[in-house]
Design a protein that fits this description.
With about 150 residues, the chain is mainly β. About 10% of the residues lie in helices and about 40% in strands. It contains one helix and eleven strands; from the N terminus they run βββββββββββα. Strands 5-6-7-8 form a four-stranded antiparallel sheet, with helices on one face. The longest helix is centred in the last third of the chain and has 14 residues. It is globular.
């Protein structure tokens, strides 16, 4: 899987062998609540879903790679402040998954801390409030001119 700052999740055929170039198999539009979402970045496949941090947002999106639909948000808005260097460093920008031990790790640009994160499903009455909060925090702007993305 690959992204390019657009609202697309690209599925690549990656051949083995030196000097052989990957080719595009297909692309799907990343959407949340029917709206396209740009700036998925730093991808990791976990239990068949593609997790991506969203550029300039303290969030992970769980994306269905077949449809492109965001099937869940991971709100990490308070994570950086728990680090000893909470006034240093940039944005969330690192995801790693240890499949053997079923462990998820996240970090950020210039963060001194690597966090092991346990995800929990939000259901029932808590779900709607959590979804509204996550969408407000996690939905990126239409452009990020400071990165050169109109």
């Amino acid at each position: 899987y690959a992204t390019d700052a657009s609202n697309k999740l690209h599925v690549l055929d990656v051949p083995t062998g030196e000097g052989v170039v990957a080719s595009l198999r297909r692309s799907v539009t990343i959407t949340d609540n029917g709206e396209p979402v740009r700036f998925a970045n730093e991808l990791e496949v976990i239990h068949g879903a593609v997790f991506a941090n969203i550029l300039e947002r303290p969030c992970l999106a769980r994306i269905d790679p077949e449809t492109g639909k965001i099937t869940g948000w991971v709100n990490m808005g308070t994570l950086k402040s728990t680090s000893p260097n909470d006034n240093v460093g940039e944005v969330l920008n690192g995801i790693a998954y240890d499949e053997e031990s079923d462990r998820l790790f996240v970090t950020g640009k210039m963060w001194a801390t690597l966090f092991e994160v346990k995800l929990r499903e939000v259901t029932g009455a808590e779900y709607e409030d959590a979804l509204i909060e996550a969408r407000a925090l996690c939905t990126p702007p239409k452009s990020l001119a400071s990165y050169g993305y109109p």
